[in-house]
Amino acid sequence: MVHRFYEKTLKQQHIIQFKILGSAILFIIVLGGVFYLLDVSFLIFIGFSITLSIIAPFIDVPSGIKSGSLKYYSPILIGESVKNGILKLHVGTLFDYYYVLNKRTSRTERKKQAFRGYIQGLISLIEEYEITRPNAIKIKATSYIINKRTAEKIGLCKVKTDFLGHLILYFNYFNLLCSLSLMNTKLSFPNLSDMCSFEGDLDDLISKKNYLIALKNRI
């Protein structure tokens, strides 16, 4: 599994980001003009917010990787820097799906590819921390791919998504829509009630290494 964006030179990466920003700005200006002529100017803010949520990961993720605040454990599993004993995992963004998923494959194969990427990322995370046990680190993650049963098998338990988590999900609805549609090879509207938040101790996850390796080999 390869992240095609990072195979490009730094100059090529910057050109892509500038093109995305330029296209977004042009789109917002045109859309704003249309809304103004139609006398529905209040929709400009909504259009701006939707556009921002879609392009944000194409800018934020590479910037986070460069600054060291984010780290890839696999091409579609990202971890934040540990803060207050908590490691937050992000299971793929629209940016990552766009540059990682094979667009010539079927919906089933794309889902398998994504799931393999998640599992490989967890294995890489384990291999980084298993030599420092015991670790007083708690893992937090939100996903609409990993279900409660699978999470429990790898040492994570489902928890209630807090208010801030719900707010972030709703803001990123159209980003999720694009991500899900890309994975399913057709327009797919996300059901936010299917989004699950999980927590668990890192050492419990480490103890499941053999299970995760076997699971990855079965997929």
Structure commentary:
This protein is an alpha+beta fold and 219 residues long. The protein has one domain (4-218). Helices cover 57% and strands 13% of the residues. It contains 9 helices and 6 strands; from the N terminus they run H-H-E-E-E-H-H-E-H-E-H-H-E-H-H. It has a 6-stranded mixed beta sheet. Helix 1 (10-37) packs antiparallel against helix 2 (43-67), helix 2 (43-67) crosses helix 7 and helix 4 (107-129) packs antiparallel against helix 9 (209-218). The longest helix has 28 residues, at 10-37. The chain is globular, with a radius of gyration of 19 Å. The mean pLDDT is 88.
The share of residues in extended strands comes to: 5-15%
Helix content: 55-70%
Q: How far apart, in Å, are the first and last alpha carbons?
A: 14 Å
Counting copies of identical and different chains, the oligomeric state is single chain
Strand order of the largest sheet: 1-2-3-4-6-5
Largest sheet: 6 strands, mixed
Query: Could you tell me the mean pLDDT?
Result: 88
Number-wise, the strands total 6
Helix-strand pattern, N to C?
HHEEEHHEHEHHEHH
Counting structural domains, the number is 1
Total of DSSP H or I helical runs spanning 4+ residues: 9
Q: What is the molecular shape? A: globular
Radius of gyration: 19 Å
For the structure shown, list the relevant keywords.
219 residues; alpha+beta; 6-stranded mixed β-sheet; 57% helix; globular
What's the short version?
This protein has helices at 10-37, 43-67, 94-100, 107-129, 148-153, 163-171, 173-184, 202-206, 209-218, and strands at 70-74, 77-80, 86-90, 138-143, 157-159, 196-201. It has 219 residues and is of the alpha+beta class.
